[in-house]
Amino acid sequence: MYGYVQNIVETGRPQGEAHEVSTLPPAITFGGTVSSVARTTYRLVDLSGFDPPAALTSHIAGLVKRMFNALHIPPNPPSSTTKGSFEFTYETNTAASEDSSALGPIGFLLLVPLSLGFLVAWALRRTDRTRGALALAFPLYVVALALGTRWNLYVDRFPS
Q1: By the 8 A CB rule, do 109 and 54 touch?
Q2: Which is more confident, 126 or 153?
Q3: Residue 160 has pLDDT above 60, yes or no
């Protein structure tokens, strides 16, 4: 977190002024931001390093596609998607790579439920503000990422 805070203080952006980041600012729209948050969150469901059966990954991809369609979330809005071969697909990531791997299944299964659980507990006043603020850190970071850069296949590796 120190590096992100230092970048915000010095540049106003969590990712700093790197050429790769500064050339990818999104045209901020409600639909584009919702799409980027949804795509990033889905890509954090990462099975990199595993070899799950194709039927499982196909089922997951189909379920996510139906959810995006039901919620009217565009998969690749031009205002917030990097052009070219970086477009979102519903495939589940199974390739282990420092460029595209995210939290992994255990990271996702621990971080997301804990964050949601403490947010609910905070809303119900069953935990203190410190834990509530920590629970907000992850979802706020995903939103900040959506507001700060166009979505691409590599954006989901930042939270890991």
Answers
A1: no
A2: 126
A3: no
